[in-house]
């Protein structure tokens, strides 16, 4: 379950993105958040997946929980084990420019060893070339 309680968020430049948002998503539910450009859809997703407050450093008020755990107290990779988000622009979800680096990055975020990352990247890149 994801629970947002009275979430407000202001970007570092002072722009208010969210104001008093309350949302409950129960286990097994799939949710689509739609709206006009700039309405806060991606910001809500960033609160749910932990990018806010762990990556984006604006000012957040309220509480966000995933599976009963306070998202602000979890490590970012721990949130990733609980919450998945897909944004409107897939390019904004990639952090590298090559397939093997992107695979490695994903494995790094869940604390896999260098040897395991290397092995998995080699296997997946071989499969990709078939």
UniProtKB/TrEMBL annotation:
Originating organism: Pasteurella multocida
Role noted for this protein: Probably part of an ABC transporter complex. Responsible for energy coupling to the transport system.
Keyword list, A-Z: ATP-binding, Cell membrane, Membrane, Nucleotide-binding, Repeat, Translocase, Transport
Family under the similarity heading: Belongs to the ABC transporter superfamily.
Membrane topology listed for this record: Peripheral membrane protein
One MF term in the entry's GO annotations: ATP binding
Main location: membrane
Domain ABC transporter: 18-118
Coiled coil: none
Compartments in which it is found: Cell membrane
Top-level taxon in the UniProt lineage: Bacteria
Name of the featured protein: Energy-coupling factor ABC transporter ATP-binding protein
Entry annotated with the keyword Membrane: yes
An annotated GO cellular component: ATP-binding cassette (ABC) transporter complex
